[in-house]
Amino acid sequence: MQISSSEPYDAIVVGSGPGGAAVARELARAGKRVLILEQGSAAPVTGKLGQMAAMAAVPGRGAFVHRDASLLVQGITAGGSSTVNFATAAAPPLPMFAAHGIDLAPALRELRAELPIGPLPDSLVGPMAARIMEAARSLGMDWQKLDKMIRPQICRSGCWRCVYGCPFGAKWTARDFVDEAIGHGATLLDGAKVLRVIVENGTATGVELVRGGVRERALAKVIVLAGGGIGSPRLLHHSGLMPGSASFFSDPVVAVMGSVPDIDGGAEVPMAAGMRLDEDGISLADMTLPKPMYQGFTAQVGRFDRLFAHSRTLSIMVKIRDEIGGSIGPRWVDKTLCAADRKKLKEGADTARSILKAAGARHIFKSWHFAAHPGGSVRIGAGVDSDLRTATHGLYVCDASAIPEAWGLPPTLTLLCLGKRLGSQLSADL
User: Fold this and answer.
1) Which of 12, 72, 135, 357 has its CA at 20 to 30 Å from residue 129's CA atom?
2) d(CA 312, CA 304)
3) Which of these ranges, 59-68, 210-219, 252-261, has the smallest mean pLDDT?
4) Any idea where the 4Fe-4S ferredoxin-type domain is (predicted)?
């Protein structure tokens, strides 16, 4: 499919993750001519390791190693990271956005009424998650089921493919909104790497991209960058619209693991339940991983004695709200932990250890930290205003890079709210 050159599009959306997909759907529903440009592939999801690795583990594209050897990953595919996430639907912290004059409550109500958001039925809570929940509650912790973006009537008990990409259609992803946008007339081009925003007389008028080795231009009245916490600041820099580096948050995670003798599992929906300590900036949840990922973690920390204990190993995710810092540059990404971040991870890991001990686990160890939520690099109140506008007329940013403060939460539902709000505003203005 070729880019239309007869007249400008009403809008070009760069990236098809939750923010971009929500904007594109709103605009297409309103009858606007929308072009969605996605750097990754829109091939159907297979739920296999090789495809997931191509989406999120290619060095310098979806995966980045920091100076402390920790790993940051992001999804480069249609649907963005929502395609390979754990499908957890954390509600946006409304007061945080209200402080910037943004009311996300109407969008949140509409999305909750429309999307498959809710806790899993007991039949889909696996034995490992149930064991961890029972142990946490025995210690007096407020361990509750988490809202998931999963269609329970399609979801399969004993399945572990959430993070590989659900091939059964049970997990909601931003691909659903992309498909709706296409149904309303939007055009999706995958394998399209945007090189820069075209600016004429202070106004964004289009983008330059390369697809299939061919350079092209696409013109539009409005440009919405939704390339993620790393992609959007880089694109702004390449366009001469932002300094050479940007600070950000990454929501670091460690997995704390321990083996029990009386469970033979390892295949269940991850993050079925957990708890948040918002004042401390720490979250915990069960996190049963696919066997190759588990073995990667054990080998990483030299616990080869646990390499083949996957089916008996309980795993708890510890995630923290890290301080904004580090840098995203034209060719690098670096976010080493500060002392406060390390303290939070230790506190969370100690809590996870106590839960695992209460569950009867032995041989307890933890992984190195990793992260998958880069954001805050084009923050509301600094890089964009409350309507997600940049200083360049006609240019907007709608992805995790616009989140205004340090985070520590799964961002999917928040980005859908921001995208729905922005799409409605643009529909009225165009």
Assistant:
1) 72
2) 15
3) 59-68
4) 146-176
